């Protein structure tokens, strides 16, 4: 049945379609580079990195940062193997690699391109804010000279260039304009606006991107891809990334589970969920939970129970009122209804059903449903016994505890 319009009034769409971006939104996955800069993560084995790369492909993610080959021999070897995997498996995902604006970081990217035949975009980055300039004793002339040398060197090696200004959200307009203009004049055809320390709000995102598009990109007369790269220090990464798309960005960078420096980056999984809910993308997201789980295990970062979609509690409840509504929907033999009556995210998109548990906040309908779901007859005495135990508990009852009350064994 069609829930939208009939049973759900969508205030997000008042005034027109929620998605009004000028083109298809693109996503760049930074999990294997910026994500691994988190001080709490493990650097996965190459086998795990390849598995994660394939899951990115399965989710329709447009591009991926394979790493920073200038970081050392292992990093370069892993990136080489990932590029070989893209070639041998004929993956559609577009690779890029990070590089400081120095020849020793750019040259290894060209080496990998030559070895694999896979085109790799060089994501050359350089600080741009006055606070960074002061700390590093950098002058504007130094930044402009470094930008020119790095971009021209990368282009001389045949590399497409994505020019990245770190800490753009705290940089002066005249500096931003000079840096990007120099990079574009030297051959960069993509620029990245960065909220490196999670400083900005959605209002600031719109103002900054309006400036970049109107005062920097437009006067060049070139076709330039504009990317947004955000961090989550104020908890605004997803909101800021959606605002960036709204303001005209072509591509947003993100990582699985939002892993990254300090409190992390924009979560890729949450971007995919929101873009699909907004009608901006049509993608099969049934592998999203696997993507999150594989990354979680590979980098050693547990998924919090209340994490959107991938968390253990995302689509389960033991609260009586909530569960009663879900159960009534199930009894109408309408899975879609059951999966949305008490959830703003349709769980069936991810191959998951709502789960009803039993605990101190439950009603008897929880108990009856739980028993029926497992083919156990919900007699009055049994329901009362389980209900009484739940009301005395300080947590949810486990399946083993409930089955024991039924005179059955778990497993």
Outline the fold blueprint:
Layout lengths: L25 E4 L16 H13 L4 E3 L7 H16 L5 E7 L2 H14 L4 E7 L2 H7 L3 H17 L4 E6 L6 H13 L4 E6 L6 H19 L4 E6 L6 H11 L3 E4 L13 H10 L10 H12 L16 E2 L2 H12 L3 H6 L14 E2 L7 H10 L6 H13 L6 H7 L6
Parallel strand pairs: 1-2, 1-8, 2-3, 3-4, 4-5, 5-6, 6-7, 7-8, 9-10
Structure in a nutshell:
The protein has 15 helices and ten strands.
Structural class by SSE content: alpha/beta
Q: What overall form do the CA principal axes indicate?
A: elongated
On the 0 to 100 scale, the average pLDDT is 94
Q: Compute the gyration radius: what is it? A: 25 Å
Determine the number of helices (DSSP H or I, runs of at least 4 residues).
15
Spatial gap, N to C terminus: 36 Å
Low-confidence stretches: none
Tell me roughly what share of residues is in helical segments. 40-55%
Largest sheet: 8 strands, parallel, barrel
The H/E string reads EHEHEHEHHEHEHEHEHHEHHEHHH
Strands side by side in the biggest sheet = 1-2-3-4-5-6-7-8
How many β-strand stretches?
A: 10
Can you name the CATH architecture of the largest domain?
Alpha-Beta Barrel
Question: How would you describe the overall organization of this protein?
Answer:
The chain has helices at 46-58, 73-88, 103-116, 130-136, 140-156, 173-185, 202-220, 237-247, 268-277, 288-299, 320-331, 335-340, 364-373, 380-392, 399-405, and strands at 26-29, 63-65, 94-100, 121-127, 161-166, 190-195, 225-230, 251-254, 316-317, 355-356. It is elongated. It has two domains: 21-299, Aldolase class I (TIM Barrel); 316-405, no CATH class. The two termini are 36 Å apart. It is an alpha/beta fold and 411 residues long. It has 15 helices and ten strands. The mean pLDDT is 94. The strands form two sheets. The protein has an eight-stranded parallel beta barrel, surrounded by six helices.
